[in-house]
Structure formats: C-alpha cells, structure tokens
Design a protein that fits this description.
Keywords: Isomerase. GO terms for molecular function: isomerase activity; oxidoreductase activity. It holds the Pfam family DSBA. The protein is α+β, with helices and mostly antiparallel strands and about 220 residues long. It folds into three domains: about 90 residues, Glutaredoxin (3-Layer(aba) Sandwich); about 45 residues, no CATH class; about 70 residues. It is built from seven helices and six strands, in the order βαββααβαααββα. The strands form two sheets. Strands 2-1-5-6 form a four-stranded mixed sheet. It has a two-stranded antiparallel ribbon with strand order 3-4. Strand 5 and strand 6 form a beta hairpin. Helix 1 crosses helix 7, helix 4 runs antiparallel to helix 5 and helix 5 packs across helix 6. The chain is globular, with a radius of gyration of 18 Å. It starts with a strand and ends with a helix.
C-alpha cells in the first residue's frame, strides 16, 4: 500500500539559500525514495517576492549589496559564506556574473502560470532554468523577454504567458505573500511540519520521516 507525502517550498529566485535548499531537498528525496520506495511525493512551489519595492529595472547588484551590508568586506564575507555552502551542495555560484538585482515579480507570476498549465516535469525544468539563469548565467530575471525565452525553452507557448509577463514592476502577491515573515527557503511537510532555512539533507530527510510517521499514527 502506497503512502503519500506533500511538500511545499516557499522561495525567491534571488535567494542563494533557496537554490542551495532546493539541492539539499533533492538529495533528501533521493534518499527517501531509496529507503521507502512506496512513498508518493508531490512538490508544490510557492513564490515569495522578498523585495516587492524593487524598481522594475532592478538595481546594480554590487551597489545593492554594498548598501545592504555596509562595506566591501562584509559583502566579500557574505559571498564567501554562500559559495562555501553552495559548493557543499554541489553548486557553483559566480557572483561576478550577476550584474543586476532584479525585480522578481514577473518570474514568480510566470512560474505560477506554468504550474497551472504545465506538467510537473515542465515546472521542474522551468524552476531549474530560472535559478540557473540568475546564479549561473547572470541573466536578468526582471526582463520579460528573457523570461519568455526561458519559458519557451521549457515547452510553454508564448500566447499562454502574456498576462504573467507584465513588465511594470507590480508586486507579486500570491496566496503566500505573508510567508516572507518566515524567511525563505521555508519547507512545509504534509501541511503540518515546517522547517525554516537552508537545512542539511539530514534535517530535511528527518522532517520527511517525522511527517510520514505522524500520518501513520493518525491513520492507525
């Protein structure tokens, strides 16, 4: 008899810890499926726009973080911390390639529309491509033309995306708007057990097992 596990992930595309957390989640899921192949997992991705007041054209990346952290030394220390955590998760984040801190409203609207229209595989491919566009390729996720090309590469028709790519900087307010207070990434397992922050594979796997055990007790 199969069992089910529903996982919700709250994230923003500009958050490196969200990309790192996604990789750790993938590892945890691989271990879960190896040890408990009868568990059917469903993933639900929720966009949270951390900077809703960001100008539509974004801001220079280096300038944004210098103002945010106060000094070049603080920026270098933060980026070194992120690179170290990313490397441990099998990722290479090249901050030198990122020129702009973008407004992510359209990127979130795009993923929301894609989730309604596409298959789970298409949504996963789009999510992966959007993160790679920003953290690996230095592309501007605030540019509707860039987003359109990425979506088309993932099999979505341009005519289906028109309403989501506004290009006006209007904030993205999904059902998850209030989740920004919890920080991202934020994981919810079976709508009962929550884990905040970019946690290790072991922590996420432990949360999955705890959620499954709780469901089993309730069904007994």
């Amino acid at each position: 008899m199969s069992r089910s596990l529903h996982i919700e992930v709250f994230f923003d595309f500009i958050c490196p810890w969200c990309l790192i957390g996604m990789r750790q989640l993938e590892r945890a899921l691989t271990e879960l499926r190896a040890s408990q192949p009868d568990v059917e997992v469903s993933l639900e991705w929720h966009g949270v726009q951390l900077l809703p007041d960001m100008p539509v054209a974004g801001l220079p990346f280096a300038e944004f973080y210098l103002r945010r952290l106060g000094s070049e030394q603080a920026v270098q220390m933060r980026q070194a911390q992120v690179r170290e955590a990313a490397a441990a998760a099998g990722l290479n984040i090249d901050f030198a390639r990122i020129l702009r801190m973008p407004n992510t409203a359209d990127a979130h609207r795009l993923l929301q529309r894609a989730t309604a229209l596409g298959s789970a595989e298409q949504v996963e491919a789009l999510l992966e491509r959007l993160f790679a566009a920003y953290f690996h390729n230095g592309e501007n996720l605030g540019d509707p033309a860039t987003l359109r090309v990425i979506a088309e590469d993932c099999g979505f028709a341009p005519v289906d995306l028109v309403d989501s790519l506004r290009g006006d900087g209007s904030p993205f307010f999904g059902d998850e708007a209030g989740m920004a207070a919890n920080g991202v990434p934020y994981f919810v397992f079976d709508r009962r057990l929550a884990v905040s922050g970019s946690q290790s594979t072991e922590v996420l796997l432990g949360a999955m097992n705890a959620a499954l055990a709780r469901s089993a007790r309730q069904q007994a």
